[in-house]
Design brief:
399 residues; nine-stranded mixed β-sheet; globular; TIM Barrel; binds pyridoxal-5'-phosphate; alpha/beta; three-stranded antiparallel β-sheet
Amino acid sequence: MPYTEDRAAWFEGQGLWQHIPENDWRDWTWQLKNRITTTAQLEQFMTLTPDEKAGCEHANHKLALAITPYFFNLIDRRDPECPIRKQVIPRGGEMIVSAEEQLDSLGEDEHSPVPGLVHRYPDRVLFLVTDRCAAYCRYCTRSRLVSNAQDYNFHPEFEQGLRYIEAHPEIRDVLLSGGDPLLLSDRKIEHLLARLREIKHVEFIRIGSRIPVFLPQRITPELCEIFKKYGPIWMSIHVNHPKECTEELRAACERLSFAGVPLGNQSVLLAGVNDDAEVMKALVHRLLRMRVRPYYLYQMDLITGGAHFKVDVRKGIEIVRALRGHTTGYAVPQYVIDAPGGGGKVPVNPDYVEKITDDEVVFRNYEGHVFRYPLKSTTKRVATDVPAPGHHGVPVIVP
Ligand SMILES: *Cc1c(COP(=O)(O)O)cnc(C)c1O
C-alpha cells in the first residue's frame, strides 16, 4: 500500500515474501533466519549497480552484510538513489579510507576500563552488551567491533561490566548498546536489567536499539512485560528517513510506549538519505505521531570508509534552522558532533544571537526578524502604594 500524506505510516505487507505464512513473517526468529547476507542473495532480488557490487565484495572484511526481509521490502529496487537502499547495501565508497578517518574515531577504546564499557562522562556509561545487530548500517560508528568482520575480537563481558558499575557509585545512568541489545534473548535482557536495578546508585537505564526499525517483530508482549517490570526503561531508536515509519514500526512503538518506555530517536545526517529539510520535517512529524521524540541528529563520525555519507555541517545547521520555530518544538532534535578522539557530544546550533552587550541582546527569530531584549534596567517610576496582604504575591500567613 503506498504512502499518502494522511496516513501515519507506510504499509508494505509481506511484499516480496507473499508466499510465506503470516505467522512466520510475524515471527522475529524467522526474520533473522531469513536475512539477506550474501551478494548472491541480493542479486536474486534486485540488480545491483557496479558501485554496489564493488561495495558488496569488500563488505565481509569490513562490516557484514545483513538485511531483514521486513526492512528489505522498504527498498525501492528500481531506484539506486533510494534512501533505504543506501543505508544497508554496501557501496564502493566503503573501500576508500580518508586521512582524517579512524577505526575508533570516538576514542572509545581508550575510555574502556573493561571490555565493552565506555566511561567517558563522569556520571554515565555506555555498556556494549553484544556485537550483533539485526541488520547492519553501512555507516556504523562501531563497525570495528560490530558483526566481527574485522577480527577485532570483541567479547562482551557482562559480568565485568556489571562489577565495574557496582564499584563506581558516581555512575547514575547506564546506556545499553552494542551491537543491538534487543537481539539478546529475553532471559539475558531480564538478567541484565535485574542486575542493574539491584545497584542502588543506578537511577537511569536506557537502551539504544534499531531493532524496532529493522525487526519490529522482536518487540513482543513478553519483552514489553520485562520493560514494565524493571521500568522506567528509556529507549532511543534510530530512524533516518520517513519511509522507515511503517505501520509495523508504529505498532512496535505503541507496544513499547504502553509498557511505559519513553521513546526518543537518534538520526544520523547522511548524504542522499536525509540531508534535506523537507525530508527531515516529514520524518520528525511522523515520529511524533508514533510517540517518539526526536532526540539527537548526529553529524557522521569520521569512521573509515564513510566519506560518501558525509554532509557539510552548514547543511545540517540549515536543516535545524528550517525546523526550529517552523514546527513543534518537540519535533526538533539537537544537532551534535561527537568530538573526534573522544570529547563527547557537542551541540551545534544555528546562531540566532546577533550581539550581546551590557545593555542588550540583539537576536533574530525564526522568521529572520530582529528583536532586542534589554539587560540593563532604567527606572521609570517608583510605585509608592504598598499592596494589601494577599495581593501581588505577598503571602498571607494563617496562624
Ligand atoms: C552518547 C554517549 C552517552 C550518552 O550521552 P547523552 O548525551 O547523555 O545521551 C554516554 N556515553 C557515551 C560514551 C556516549 O557516546
